[in-house]
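Good morning,

Attaching, inline, the backbone tokens for the sequence recovery test we're adding to the shared suite. The designed sequence is right after.
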């Protein structure tokens, strides 16, 4: 049960990958060496849900009648009649009081004509109506690269893909584009291309089946592929067939983006000497017509191994933006060009800072740097803490305390002078935050009444500690630190800083001396005294 649930989760997640990345998986439901529990159950459920359903009304010109089809016949003569008639195993229709009509291999439309003629030639009747009441069931065999060769029940409105589902689905190694439908006469062969059917909606590539048909599924030739890469919605490799053209491959890739550079689409081909050569094509005229069913002008037949590469437009400007939050009048996302938009521009677009803004503590986070990888930190994380060298430990501690991606700029200078070097150009997804002014100082640690105290200009840290009740039990005044809003730390007694609103004052406890530390120290002193005494006694003997 746990294996089945795991398979269910994995298959659900992989279903979001592009079709073309593994076209066989999306049609067969399986991958190489993958247990087929989910694919089989899904196919089984779909078969049950779609049993007896039709895509649309039957086309009388196309539907071929056969044994066990049930027709309804109604007409007016001396009295009205409505009867249900079943076609016999020999393909004949017996109409009581009228006679027999041979309908073998006849379409529904032709059958209606024959029945009309038979009724009119036998009796005087009006308002003759013939309709198909119930579809027949028959057998179709499936063999080749399928989960299990089988003979399955089908109807004349079932397509090849539905019969394959009933048989359990294709193997991962199966071809999805070279399937053969061998019809009951043993001579007529139809090519089945499920990729064209599912990706392009080509219904002729997935025909209906008839009684006695045989579906033969060959293995896929891994060496015969065509590929499309670059600026397309669904890049990837696809199985090749002789009918493929450049437009077919592009349609498999789901067409173009607006960013696709169509002036020089590269077609890479292997020549007779097994060397690569490139042809560059201008496909600008295809942009608006690629998704039509009409033949495209200048289309090119493809060969196995061909690759198409579509580059990105060099003049395309991405939708870049920067975000500003906090104490501005209009916080939110703002468009930038990534070339000339500066910090001051975003501040102006946001209506400027409010009267409660703490501009000294404003910050700019550069997303591109925030997501950058520090390989040295990753290495140090794998080393036990007590095995780090002093330099490694210092590096680790410094980087761990770092706010990743924060830019070292002074917003106050930017507001005063737009020409300031701090007024830098913004990158995509940069984030500016303007905090509000905190009119208090946070005093924590070994004080008698920790918490927030009102800020008063020009006062030192000891003033705020006194407002917090003074030093508490076992406080260590000499190790008191000041932590600024941006994370800078100062030893309080050095007084090389200025207390500002929003600062944090932390009073740590005295380091505790354990019993073993006292014992070890005492033992060391005693040992030294004994040594000294021994030396003195030795001197006295002399």
């Amino acid at each position: 049960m746990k294996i089945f649930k795991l398979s269910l989760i994995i298959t659900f997640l992989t279903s979001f990958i592009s079709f073309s990345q593994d076209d066989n998986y999306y049609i067969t439901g399986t991958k190489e060496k993958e247990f087929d529990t989910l694919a089989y159950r899904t196919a089984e459920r779909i078969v049950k849900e779609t049993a007896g359903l039709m895509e649309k009304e039957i086309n009388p010109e196309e539907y071929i009648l056969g044994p066990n089809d049930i027709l309804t016949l109604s007409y007016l003569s001396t009295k009205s009649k409505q009867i249900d008639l079943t076609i016999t195993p020999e393909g004949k229709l017996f109409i009581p009081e009228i006679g027999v009509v041979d309908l073998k291999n006849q379409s529904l439309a032709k059958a209606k004509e024959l029945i009309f003629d038979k009724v009119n030639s036998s009796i005087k009747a009006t308002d003759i109506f013939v309709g198909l009441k119930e579809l027949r069931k028959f057998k179709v065999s499936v063999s080749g690269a399928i989960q299990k060769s089988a003979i399955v029940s089908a109807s004349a409105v079932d397509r090849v893909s539905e019969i394959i589902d009933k048989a359990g689905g294709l193997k991962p190694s199966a071809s999805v584009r070279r399937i053969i439908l061998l019809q009951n006469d043993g001579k007529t062969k139809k090519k089945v291309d499920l990729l064209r059917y599912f990706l392009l909606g080509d219904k002729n590539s997935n025909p209906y089946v008839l009684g006695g048909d045989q579906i033969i599924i060959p293995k896929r030739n891994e060496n015969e592929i065509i590929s499309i890469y670059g600026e397309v919605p669904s890049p990837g490799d696809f199985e090749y067939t002789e009918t493929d053209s450049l437009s077919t491959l592009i349609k498999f890739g789901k067409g173009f983006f607006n960013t696709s550079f169509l002036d020089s689409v590269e077609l890479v081909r292997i020549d007779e000497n097994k060397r690569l050569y490139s042809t560059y094509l201008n496909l600008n005229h295809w942009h608006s017509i690629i998704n039509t069913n009409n033949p495209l002008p200048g289309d090119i037949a493809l060969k196995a191994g061909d690759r198409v590469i579509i580059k990105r437009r060099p003049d395309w400007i991405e939708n870049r933006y920067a975000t500003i939050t906090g104490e501005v009048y209009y916080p939110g996302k703002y468009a930038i060009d990534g070339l000339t938009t500066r910090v001051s521009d975003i501040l102006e677009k946001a209506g400027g800072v409010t009267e409660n803004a703490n501009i000294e503590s404003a910050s700019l986070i550069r997303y591109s740097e925030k997501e950058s990888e520090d390989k040295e930190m990753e290495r140090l994380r794998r080393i036990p803490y007590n095995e780090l060298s002093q330099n490694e430990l210092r590096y680790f501690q410094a980087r761990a305390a770092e706010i990743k991606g924060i830019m070292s700029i002074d917003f106050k200078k930017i507001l005063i002078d737009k020409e300031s070097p701090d007024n830098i150009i913004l990158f995509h997804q940069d984030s500016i935050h303007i905090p509000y002014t905190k009119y208090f100082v946070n005093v924590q640690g070994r004080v008698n009444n920790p918490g927030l105290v009102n800020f008063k200009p020009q006062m030192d840290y000891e003033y705020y500690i006194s407002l917090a009740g003074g030093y508490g039990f076992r406080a260590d005044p000499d190790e008191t630190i000041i932590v600024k809003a941006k994370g800078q730390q100062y030893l309080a007694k050095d007084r090389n800083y200025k207390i500002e609103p929003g600062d944090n004052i932390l009073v740590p406890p005295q380091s505790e001396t354990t019993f073993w530390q006292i014992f070890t120290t005492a033992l060391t002193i005693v040992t030294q005294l004994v040594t000294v005494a021994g030396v003195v006694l030795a001197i006295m003997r002399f």
